[in-house]
Specification:
The structure holds two protein chains of two kinds.
Chain A: H1 2-20, E1 35-41, E2 51-53, E3 59-62, H2 71-87, E4 91-92, E5 103-119, H3 122-126, E6 155-169, E7 175-176, E8 182-184, E9 187-196, H4 201-217
Parallel strand pairs in A: 2-4, 2-5, 3-5
Antiparallel strand pairs in A: 1-9, 5-6, 6-9, 7-8
Chain B: H1 2-16, E1 27-38, H2 40-45, E2 52-63, E3 66-91, E4 94-120, E5 125-143, E6 146-166, E7 171-183, E8 192-203
Antiparallel strand pairs in B: 1-2, 1-8, 2-3, 3-4, 4-5, 5-6, 6-7, 7-8
The chains are: A alpha/beta, B mainly beta.
């Protein structure tokens, strides 16, 4: 009976640990971390806008070493934005008509963020014991000794994430300050997509295309 | 096939049980596997059945058939949207629409002080009681690389009932059901669920 008791207990603990150890998985693939955000003014009548102008460059901002986006990537992004808006019924023109109110300017920007993270060793996590002050001095008057044989473990890892921004400006509604000087053009719509910059160029381009389509899909008021 | 296995298992358990009375013990210690069905606000937030959970229960006999004790555990509720979902919020005439795959989690760690009555039947012991205490709730929603979390302790009550099926003098199988209801006034989900426990009980 004594042996049976521990056998049953052991089997049960194994099953118990197996079930308790299961934790639900989160995102497994890079594209599952993609996020699309659109912002619009619900008091604005977007049916009044139907033509757009786009600069032939993408504004590139980064905290990394790259100084500019590649020509191929830039061309791909600009083409995707133009194609998506044209598919939504917009007309692409070369210069805005400031005498009419139906034109907008689409500014495309890319932010590339390099994130660094430092993982320091076991002793760093517990913080130092000071020789005097908060804690009584450790024998020998020094810092808490490192765990035997567990020295100097730390790692640095980095990852890059990027945000594609499309800002729609109304050139016919400049914003003035108090002394009647035009301060800028209002952003009447914004579309942003954020994700990790991982994977091949083709997969990255596919995700950009999907995200731009999502922006248009989330903005039915822009569809003509 | 599944029903046949379940019925056979129950018949087997009942067949090996002996006639053991509650007053022969000073305490019961139960370790169990816990599943839970989300209810109310919890099911609005996550409507998936939780298959991940554990339950610990200690009962001390203060009188014949009456116990006081402590009950605790851990349940994980989880759901993902499967595909991209969109959420909109309006702030000062500006409408923000977020679209991404959503991952939702609730980790619930209940802890209760319990009182129970244990009734001796021919070959099993039935119990029923209630618990008062709380649940630590860690609620998280992830969209893209961004996470919104709420962590708080919520006051909770927990009526419960079940059956002890003795295997031998020292050990019993415990099958029980427990209703957990929390109360909160914050933005976090007010946690309520119906938990199903299957475990082993050691009597002393």
């Amino acid at each position: 009976m004594y042996t049976n008791k521990w056998k049953i207990t052991g089997v049960f603990l194994l099953i118990f640990i197996a079930f308790a150890g299961c934790y639900p998985d989160g995102p497994e693939y890079v594209d599952e971390l993609d996020l699309v955000l659109t912002v619009h003014d619900e008091s604005l009548d977007y049916s009044a806008f139907n033509r757009f102008v786009m600069p032939d460059t993408v504004v590139f901002i980064t905290n990394g070493r790259d100084s500019e986006i590649s020509d191929d990537q830039e061309e791909y992004i600009l083409n995707e934005v133009a194609t998506s808006f044209q598919a939504a019924g917009w007309t692409k023109v070369d210069t805005p008509d400031t005498s009419a109110s139906g034109d907008v300017i689409l500014l495309v920007s890319v932010l590339k963020n390099v994130n660094l993270s430092l993982s320091y060793g076991w002793w760093g996590y517990w913080d130092w014991w000071y020789g005097w002050g908060y804690y009584p001095g450790y024998p020998g008057g020094g810092y808490y000794p490192m765990y035997p044989g567990y020295c100097c473990y730390s790692s640095i890892y980095s990852y890059e994430d990027g945000t594609l921004m499309i800002e729609m400006l109304d050139p016919n509604s400049p914003v003035y300050d108090d002394d009647a000087d035009a301060q800028g053009l209002p952003v009447v719509w914004g579309g942003f997509c954020n994700g990790l910059l991982q994977g091949s160029t083709s997969s990255l381009n596919r995700r950009i295309s999907t995200s731009i389509d999502q922006m248009i899909s989330d903005s039915p008021y822009l569809i003509k | 096939m599944k029903n046949t296995i379940l019925i056979s298992l129950i018949a087997l358990l009942l067949s090996v049980s002996g006639s053991i009375k509650a007053q022969e013990y000073d305490q019961f210690f139960t370790l169990g596997y816990n599943t839970a069905l989300p209810l109310g606000e919890t099911s609005d937030y996550i409507d998936e059945f939780s298959w991940r959970g554990i339950n610990l229960d200690v009962k001390y006999f203060v009188k014949r058939n009456i116990t006081l004790g402590i009950n605790g555990g851990w349940n994980v509720f989880h759901s993902n949207s499967g595909g991209v979902v969109s959420e909109s919020v309006t702030v000062n005439d500006q409408v923000l629409t977020l679209s991404a795959k959503q991952y939702r989690y609730i980790n619930a760690l209940p802890i209760y002080f319990t009182g129970s009555y244990i009734a001796d039947l021919e070959s099993v012991m039935l119990y029923a009681g209630t618990g008062i205490g709380g649940q630590y709730v860690a609620q998280r929603i992830q969209m893209g690389q961004y996470i919104i979390e709420y962590d708080e302790f919520q006051f909770a009550v927990s009526p419960h009932a079940g059956v002890y099926i003795p295997l031998n003098y020292y050990m019993m199988v415990n099958v029980g059901v427990q209703y957990n209801q929390s109360f909160t006034s914050s933005d976090a989900v007010q946690l309520s669920n119906l938990a199903f426990n299957v475990g082993l009980t050691w009597g002393k």
